[in-house]
Amino acid sequence: MTNISTLAPPASEDFLYQQIADRLAGQIKQQLLKTGDKLPSVRALSQEQGISLSTAYKAYVQLEINGLIEARPKSGYYVRYTPARPFVQQKPAEYVKESKKLSLDEMISLVYRNYSSESVVRLSRSVPALSLVPQAKLNKSMMEAIRLSTDSCINYEPVQGNENLRKQVARFSFSWGGNITAEDVITTQGCMEALGFCLRAVTKPGDAVAIESPAYFGIFTTIQSLGLKIVEIPADPIAGLDLDYLEKVIAEKQIKACLFVPSFSNPLGFCMTDANKKKMVAMLARYEVPLIEDDIYGEIYFGKTRPRTCKSYDEHGLVMYCSSVSKSLAPGYRVGWCLPGKFKEQIITLKLMHALSSASPTQAAIAHFLETGRYDLHMRKLRRALHTQCLRYTQAIVEYFPLDIKVSRPEGGYGLWIELNKKINAFELYEQALAYHIVISPGQVFSIDSRFSNFIRISFGIPYSPQIDQRLKTLGELIKKI
User: Fold this and answer.
1) For FRET with 143, which of 40, 106, 173, 243 sits at 20 to 30 Å CA-CA?
2) How far apart are alpha carbons 431 and 446 in whole angstroms?
3) Does 134 sit behind a cis peptide bond, omega within 30 degrees of 0 on the bond before it?
4) How far apart are CA 145 and CA 354, in angstroms?
5) Contact residues for 131 (Cβ-Cβ < 8 A; gap 6+)
6) Which of 288, 323, 318, 290 lies closest to 307, judged by CA?
7) Nearest Cα to Cα of residue 462 among 138, 122, 35
8) pLDDT 10s digits, 154-195
9) For residues 436 and 413, what is the distance between their CA atoms, to the nearest angstrom?
10) Residues 6+ apart with CB under 8 A from 170
């Protein structure tokens, strides 16, 4: 980190905090202090500059107001400035559709094919790197859970799921405004199974389901495999879902269910405001349309508090909440859950028909990990790491990519949504990058009509390193050549 103790003390006491703030701002904009760098504490700044604690605090507040630094809970102040040109609010109707050479299914198949390859740098996976996961503690929880179990986790769990895990999920719901009990929870094999059960419970083949656009391509395959029609609701990185458009199409398209990611949507990264979440829940209740809330990224927030969920505003049992630990702790454990509200009995019946039970050892292990407080500690560390990685990746992208790009500024999650020049074909860029052992997510796979042809998603789940820096530099050079 650049040492700021070399800043000369101002000659005048007038507006002293502003002078300190201006000098720091100059170092930040010159990248002497880089995105993600930790700044001295208020006390340390006070001592270094020979100023009062109040003056040092005011200087940091001014820099926060200017968007150059940010305060992280129990951690201190960090540089957040980046010269990137952010998105401005826009309507997806402005996006240009391409004449496809490949079908959406073919593109998704090709992207999935390289999704888990160990021979490439995967800038496409929205999961934490293994180095960010407390593997030893997780293994310990697995062993302790099996040891404490009366049957060593060999027998089937009740169809509703491991009782202790359901208790822990209910306990953790307090952080997002929930008021639930273990009886409200049904465990599943990951979040995708929960979403599938919820869709089956409230729709039949031929029904229309509303999703945000752009949206994670795994949702398309799940919905279409059930014989359902997809209706895309415009969204952007600033405002999120277009609620006026949603209300308009509910009647026109006879929407039978909505499936949204209100907190840190993939790939846009937006988080709906509490007011808009409450407004959407009330609106859907008027039309008696169930909302399937995918909150898989809800715990991956960079701010001071966890965002509330749509479920917390549910007064009629129409919100079907789904989540898991796949994005926060252990993707391979396939431990998820849903809170299906008034549709609980339908979900239990579906689980009994399609899965019978969820895996006993992994459910017990996650329950133990939550119960012992290990999850809280892990998440505090993971959120700090991902926030810093987000800033580092953004800084490199701004430095290496062409000047006309736009980059989202997510407040949580794993992804950066990047708009390139309209002349760029994202899938062609994906194919060229693959030759350099780089995997990105082309924008075409995030819409059923491949409309986002000059967008890409880059995930920052891998800690920043010289290798990542070089790959982003290579990617930038490829874009410039195109």
Assistant:
1) 173
2) 17
3) no
4) 26
5) 463
6) 323
7) 122
8) 999 999 999 999 999 999 999 999 989 999 999 999 999 999
9) 26
10) 178, 180, 181, 182, 184, 185
